[in-house]
Amino acid sequence: MSQAQGEFDLIRRIQAAARPGASRPGIVLGIGDDAALLQPPPGHLVVVTTDMLMDGRHFILAEHGAEAVGIKAMGVNLSDLAAMAALPWAAFASVALPRTSEVGDANAIAHGLLQGIRRVSEDHQMVLAGGDTNAWDGPLVVSITLLGLVEDDPPGAVFRSGARPGDTLAVTGPLGGSILGRHLRPQPRIAEARALRAHLKLHALIDLSDGLASDLRRLSEASNGWGIELDEWAIPIHDDAQRLAQMSGRSPLDHALNDGEDFELCLATPETLDPDRLANLPTHLIPIGRVVDRPGFFLRAANGMIRPLEPGGFDHLRDSTNS
Amino acid sequence: MSQAQGEFDLIRRIQAAARPGASRPGIVLGIGDDAALLQPPPGHLVVVTTDMLMDGRHFILAEHGAEAVGIKAMGVNLSDLAAMAALPWAAFASVALPRTSEVGDANAIAHGLLQGIRRVSEDHQMVLAGGDTNAWDGPLVVSITLLGLVEDDPPGAVFRSGARPGDTLAVTGPLGGSILGRHLRPQPRIAEARALRAHLKLHALIDLSDGLASDLRRLSEASNGWGIELDEWAIPIHDDAQRLAQMSGRSPLDHALNDGEDFELCLATPETLDPDRLANLPTHLIPIGRVVDRPGFFLRAANGMIRPLEPGGFDHLRDSTNS
Hints:
Two copies of one chain form a homodimer.
Chain A: H1 3-18, E1 27-29, E2 36-38, E3 44-54, H2 61-64, H3 66-82, E4 87-98, H4 106-123, E5 127-136, E6 141-151, E7 168-171, H5 190-199, E8 204-207, H6 212-222, E9 227-231, H7 239-248, H8 252-258, E10 265-269, H9 275-279, E11 286-292, E12 297-300, E13 306-308, E14 320-322
Parallel strand pairs in A: 4-5, 9-12
Antiparallel strand pairs in A: 1-2, 3-6, 4-6, 7-10, 7-11, 8-10, 9-11, 12-13
Helix pairs in contact in A: 1-4, 3-4, 3-5, 7-8
């Protein structure tokens, strides 16, 4: 089979795979032309996010396999849509496929990737609407661009820039240690973001991809530079962070603050999140601190002592920046 | 300067660079949040295309430099928008930057890339609205996703699927030999596509990225499998194809038919393209053949003899497939 033949086969396979997921409205033309053509439903804006994953940095192809890479690549992008409270709409996947690898040739890798991408697309009623397939002698690179939809009317999209002093900060789940395996299976908080937006006044929303401390710095920077004060005892620590701490010599709290790829959401709300209010929300939410009117990042201990929170290290696997 | 610091600097530079080009309407939120937010102007559909370029396959970083890579990466994507007769709107750029290279470190490469991307964005009144910046030990990879706009009403977008027997095929410029350097400076035929759409009834439109013979096969496949007959003497051969033929031992015609990355447009029209009609079009157009009602690809010689056109080789640099 010639290379050209193989590539045409791949396109056909992608086209066939893309169809079953075509349950979102407005996909006028998907895969197969020079570009896709989309018509946003009336009253909606388009949300666009893109994330690139590379072998050895965000995954290890030989260890994790191609399907896991497809699942992760979609998941990290979906997490960015969740951070805007958007609904997934259409996916575009560009790949640089190694001609040979421990897990097979370019076609085998493409097949596995496609399985992973398709599975996540179906879970989120997305359409795989286009892409670009390349083979080379380098490592696997997967670049996903997702389009989402969000209502034009309030509450609309939620930005990271609206946090104000007095806001309570809260997260959707326990943090840290995702490198032990969880980072491969992101659970993008799409439904949670939609539910929270409907039931809670949100000033700001961000997904935790680079670690709570780093991502809160971005939220602060986008929100007029207001400071952040976290309650040390309130930060939910994932079991993985506990396990990892036993190996790393770092504290579980350090892992929860500084590990990346949790893919939980962090929000700022002007509402008071007392136990009653929390119990009546449709989504699990853990208050962790507040926005304060002095600049800086602070950690408040159970005894009331407040100390500055130093910037932590990046996750050793992850070293990228979304913009 | 720590790595994290360098990356934040890069984001700021991208944000600053993105602003001057912000002349298209509907960019509600660009770089700086988890995702961009776009509002298509009333009466418009969204066109989406994505293309990934890799060092050693689509460019040679050490030879061409980072700015040229940025220009080419934008150009090949713009060519796909032209092929839909769409107007450029917003760009998203994801990059895997080598930490070290002959042309400098990751920051230097990012700076050069950004110069190239910005230059093309300004030429086409586009907004750089988002992206993802990563550093690694592998070669440079650049993945661009472009969003374009096209009117909802006819004539709207032009697909590659509408060619019918009797249609005349025509191209916007001479073909072949782009590897001698032209492939680095694509002149995406955005304005030409818009002008042709306004002045000519178009059944199909495609951009020539993989070579006339390959791309016409795609047009045929998308257009009910109708055959293609090209007039050998009418195919415009670029000077570069003539020059390259002297080195390659292949014929200039072979180069014009089978070299990739011309980034001219090829259209199918039911109109008769006689010299008068051509002279009155606002855009240079060269008739090269016709769509026929028998399957296959044929080359007609000046003496009237018709022979099958065998699939040619792919450009030795390019080996990718858009979908």
